[in-house]
Design brief:
Blueprint: H1 15-30, E1 39-46, H2 55-70, E2 75-83, E3 87-90, H3 97-104, H4 116-129, E4 137-142, H5 149-162, E5 165-171, H6 175-187, E6 191-195, H7 200-228, H8 231-242
Parallel strand pairs: 1-2, 1-4, 4-5, 5-6
Antiparallel strand pairs: 2-3
Helix pairs in contact: 1-3, 2-3, 2-7, 4-5, 5-6, 7-8
Protein name: VWFA domain-containing protein
InterPro entries: vWFA_dom_sf (IPR036465)
Length: about 240
């Protein structure tokens, strides 16, 4: 795709989503400008009905991830989520992660199929339309896959080649989804990790690890892991080293 991003919409007739996007964009333009960002991260999440049983807890956990990023350094973050019938939304770029985190908790699940391909295409389009500000990492959180594995692998591989690392954090234990997610992370020069939807600290630590790596590479990631002593971060580090 070229030109205007047609993979992800930023307009909606739903008042709650319209408010979410408007507020997020306001935050992006009013956030403190302390110089160039040290990196850009797209944080994408599955908000379809399959995640509903644990969504409230998951939303809280995912909101903590923004706090983890905010402590890492100057990063620009964009939130993307999909749900319902072809609904896939992206916020503006936000440097004030705390305020964007607050907006995220308003998102509610709706029945629908996964749209991971649209998310991957969206990130690729961001890189094409803003080559001077490429996306350093895509962090995707989801529990299942309802799309062709080969197509997702191809798109993830294209992102990896372009310099955008793909990190996939799986909520739950769907084995078929795990196989696809692992393939996406490997082809995207990133890493895969699985977490229990009730383990808030694990997911927060994982995003903190990604932020550390984007800002300062393996040295910063190693230092961050020393403060956490997490086996999950250790596994993520091992995967990244194998891809380099």
């Amino acid at each position: 795709m070229t030109g205007k991003d047609k993979a992800v919409s930023t307009s909606s007739s739903d008042q709650d989503i319209a408010r979410f996007v408007k507020q997020a964009q306001t935050v992006a333009t009013s956030a403190p400008k302390s110089g160039p960002a040290q990196g850009r991260i797209v944080f994408a999440m599955d908000a379809t009905a399959s995640r509903q049983p644990r969504w409230d807890m998951a939303a809280h956990i995912q909101s903590e991830m923004f706090e983890a990023v905010a402590r890492m350094g100057t990063l620009d973050i964009q939130l993307v989520f999909f749900r319902g019938f072809g609904e896939c939304k992206a916020s503006g770029w936000c440097r004030d992660a705390g305020q964007l985190r607050a907006k995220m908790t308003a998102v509610q699940c709706r029945a629908g199929h996964t749209q991971i391909g649209r998310v991957l295409n969206h990130v690729a389009n961001q890189n094409r339309t803003q080559p001077d500000q490429p996306v350093n990492a895509l962090v995707y959180v989801g529990d299942c896959v309802e799309e062709a594995a080969d197509d997702l692998g191809h798109l993830a591989g294209q992102l990896g080649i372009s310099g955008t690392r793909v990190f996939v954090f799986q909520d739950g234990h769907d084995r078929s989804a795990e196989k696809v997610f692992r393939g996406m992370a490997r082809l995207g020069n990133g890493a895969f990790a699985r977490f229990d939807g009730t383990a808030a600290s694990v997911l927060g630590d994982l995003l903190g690890a990604v932020a550390s790596f984007i800002i300062g590479g393996f040295e910063a990631l190693t230092d961050y892991n020393k403060t956490k002593s997490s086996s999950d971060i250790g596994l993520l580090t091992d995967q990244l080293r194998r891809e380099n």
